[in-house]
Structures are given as structure tokens and as C-alpha cells.
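Ticket reopened. Same input as before:
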Amino acid sequence: MDDQQLQKIRHSTSHILAYAVKEIFGSEVKFAIGPTIDDGFYYDFDLSGQTFSTDDLKRIEKKMMELIKKKSDFNRTETDIKTALEKTKAQPYKQELINDLAKEGEKNVSFYQVGEFEDLCRGPHVENTKELGHFKLLKIAGAYWRGDEKNKMLQRIYGTAFKTKDELQKYLIMLAEAEKRDHKKLGRELDLFSFQEEGPGFPFFHDKGTIIWNALVDFMRQEMKKRNYEENKTPIILNEDLWRTSGHWDHYKESMYFTTIDEKKFAVKPMNCPGNLLIYKTNQHSYKDLPIKAGEFGLVHRHEKSGVLNGLFRVRNFTQDDAHIFCTADQLKEQIIELIDFVDFIYKTFGFKYLMELSTKPEKAMGSKETWDKAESALKEVLKEKNIEFKINEGDGAFYGPKIDFHLKDAIGRTWQCGTIQLDFSMPEKFDLEYTGEDGKKHRPIMLHRAIYGSIERFLGILIEHYAGAFPLWLSPVQIIVIPISEKFAGYGHQVMEKFKRENIRVKIDDSNESLGKRIRNAEKEKIPYIVVVGEKEQGEKTLAIRKRGEGDLGSKKIDDFMAAIKTEITDKK
RNA sequence: GCCGAUGUAGCUCAGUGGUAGAGCAUUUCCAUGGUAAGGAAAAGGUCGUGAGUCCAAUUCUCACCAUCGGCUCCA
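Engineering reply: fixed in the latest deploy. New output:
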């Protein structure tokens, strides 16, 4: 967000929020920080053990409005560090901030005063509170001081503010829209999946959810075949030594599941790559075999902390559309390019736009600096060569290598990290992978890890929200529903249904004892793409009355014409 | 894991210190329909789990479990 005036408004509104909190809760409140964020602002407070309630939010909002209506000026003053520390004696968090600023070499810091409240702040602020007023406090949350879980938990209030009432209104409508699209809600309503207390974080996919799942996997499998992938399946439980070798034990044992078999220790796989490496090693490989592209729809388990679980977005077991590419140094570039194009093709099919990010060496990394530099520059080079815009995420790579991440943008503008291409010089080393080169000598292959959907569970969740549950025909669990007007035409309805079934169309019939209006309503609520109504007229003419989801009655069509049209629609994935 | 909220019928929710109610869904019956709810009846609940207080707990207290909103985390 680069709108300066909007920034000022949000910054100033968060300042007023702190003012209001001080007015209501008194000066024992310790103030932490109140920055602006993408959609608004927040402010962190230390209430010495007390917490805010939803009612407080309303009270604070009211108080803020009162303060704003006073049309007070914001006055900026600048003081040296010493005076600043003097001024904030009762505010330990502010003192910490000032001391840090001093350490960074700042000689002076700024304060903003409005009414009877002064707060340490870099600014800028608006000049007068009369410029404010289109704001809303949204939620209360706990947040660690400075984002570190070892620090004290503070009380955070989130809010948003805009220049005009209309903009605020629009934003609140967008939030309501997002809520309507919530995949947890739609998953229940459309009977796609569920969660049970018996397995927290382990999703249950119902028939309809499984149909979409399979459609996604079939699509990916088809595209993999076109690109000469092989596919394999590796065990879910493997012994602990393997995970020690791979480095996962060192880096992630806290979030792995363990089990004992015949007094020997095993782990449930949190990633697929080690299994795949073992397959690679079952054969000798020639340079002529490379690249080997081995795909696996692999079910992995990760012991995520209880507080992070979130519908299909964050689960404890999920299926990655994983693949590992073993290639020579010479092939690396073309392989990365192929992958970028592959991801692009898949995302476009769903109508997603996306951004790319390059993540570099993290602190707890495996392998030498030289290897990392080599890997990072290889990725950078390809991105630059392809003229792709990308952001660099310093220190965010995997422990075995740098990566390119794809952040896709859904129908209402939210972004999600899904696809990833990871370069790995490290695993082939650990597992001593080899191929025989043209020179007859042994060489080490380079390994690429990649996922496009990422986690199929999560991707499905994103798709539910992206399409608001109204899946395109090729993904719809039920593609066509036949509704005979009355019992008399149930026979013809069944004939029609069978005809579609023979063509592998997912079709069902609703010949229940409900009114026509009711059955159409039900089908619309179920978000079935096509409703086919048949009665006396259709039976006589061998036609179908077609109703398209969300569009209403399209009139009557010959069965064969309609069949051809929907088959095209399915193949085109429109 | 931490902070906060929530948990009542299959679903969405109301309600109460004296063992519960609506709408939708379900079942049955009537109506045989022309593009988003035809009518009637029935059935359905250890009020998340466990303990405590009380003559009495779904209601109050505590612990636990699960879910949601955040924080931290996400190979």
C-alpha cells in the first residue's frame, strides 16, 4: 500500500485507539506498538494480566469517535534520546524501543501529541482528527511482544480505517464476502469434507470432496505424463535412521510422529523425498537416463501445534503433489524453466494470477556457503533470463536449499503460497546419489523438489473459496441433475440420466416428492452446474429444458447437442 | 504451545439453578407439479467430556477435549 494519505489516516487512527484505551483503562496501561498493516492497523497493549472483551471494543470505538469529534491537532515534537527516555519512564515497551533506536544510531526521536495523549511515533500523522472517522475496530487477539514467543503475551486490537465512508463500507462488504466463501462452512454445506474430534487436524473427505480431489489428481497426472514424469509410491512409515540421514530428524523431530515396530524406532514421513531417494538408488543411472522426473502424490504427517490448525488450510496430514527431478548441472536451467511453465499452465487453468518469490539460505541450513551461492544464483539467473518479476525472501529457504515460491491470488484478491521449486545439492550428497557420465566416471546428480498444488487439501480449500463453492463443470461433484416435473416423467428422466452416465458424466436425478420449485432451489443451493428439467414437452420432443447455475432457464435443447456442448466444456476445463 | 471466544437435535441457532425449544433436514401421509421453499403429522437431545458446589447443574466453579479469531510456527 503506497497511498501516503491512507497511511497517515491509519497511523493516526491507531494513535487515537491508544488514546481511547488510555482514557478508558487509565494510565496503568502499558503501550507497546501500533503500526499500520496491509488492511489497516493494530495496537498492542499490556493490561497487566487483564484482557479486552468484545464489549470493550465497542466502548473503545465509541470513545475514539468522541476524541475524533473534538477536532484536535496532532502536534509533532522531536527530542533527544535522554529526554525521550525521561518522558516515557512509566512505559517500559517505549523505553525498549527508544533504546533500540539509539543503538541504531538515532540521536532524536519524535512524539505526537493529540489532546492529552502523547505517544512515541515516527509518524507521519494527519494534521487534525477531523480528517479521521471512517474506521472500525475488527478484533482482539493475543500477540507476543516483538513477535517472539518467549516474550510476554500482549493484547492486540486490530482495526481498519479509510478516507471515505464508501471505502470503509466496501472493505467491510469484502470481509463479509470472504466469510460467505469460508471453505469450512461451504465444505459442510456442500458435503465435501469434515473434521472429527477423533482426529484433530486429520481431514475426512466425503464422496463429493473425494470426487474433486480425484479430478485434481487426474488432471495433474495427465499433465505429468505429457512431461515424461514417472510416478511412484513410497511407504508412510520408515525407520529413524533414514530421517537422521536426511537431516529431518535434526531439523524437525518436534513435528514428526514416531512409532515403534518390533522394538525398533520408526517415524511417519513428514516429507516424501527420502523415500524417493531410496528408489533412485535401486538402480544404476547413466547420464542418458537423466533427467529423471519422479512424481508422488505422497501422504505426509506433520505434528502441527494445536493452535495453528485451520480447516483444510492447516492440517496434520496432507497429500503433496510432490516430484523430484534428478538432473545434471547442464540440465538444471532447462528443468527449472520447464517447471515454471508447468506451474504457470496449472494455475492458469483455475484462473489464478500469481507472484513469485525467491527464498535464500536460512540460519539453520545444511551444506556449505559455496553450494548455496551456486544454487541461489542458478535460480536467480533463470528468473532474470525469463524476465520474471520476483521478490527476494532473505533467509526463508528450506534447510537443504533455496527455493522459488508461487503465491497465487484468488478471486477476491487474497494471496496463498502454494507451488514451490526447491534446489537441493545437499540430499544427493547425504544419500550418495550417482550417475555415470559420458566420461565413464561417477557424478553427483542435482536434485529439484517441486510441488504445484502444494498440499491437495489446502489447494482444495483455496479452490472452494476461490469459486465460492461453484466449481467449474470439470470439477463439480455432480455435473448435471435431472428433475422430472412429475412422477409421470420419472421414466424419461431416468433414461436421460442413463444416457449421461454412459458418457461418464456425473449425473443424478431428483424424482422425490417435492415441488418443482423446491427441487430447483435445492439443486441451485447444491451449486450443480446444469439442471435438466423434463416434462411432457421434453418427453414428446426428445429434448431437455436446460437451466444453468446462476443464470436460469436457457430453454430447450436436443439431447445430443447438449451432450456435445458439456463434453467440450469439461475438456476445456472452463 | 500462547492469548481470547465458542461448544444445546444431522445443520443453523434460541433458552433455563427445578433434566429443553424453533427453523431447515429426516420419516410417513396428502397434493402430480413448468424453473429458488405446496400442505399435514411423526420421530429426533446424557445440552462437548470429567470433577466440584448445591436438596437439585445443561445453566455456577475448575480441569480437560474440540472448533474459531489472532500470535509464534509451516521442511
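The radius of gyration of chain A is 29 Å. Chain A has a mean pLDDT of 94. Please confirm and we'll close it.
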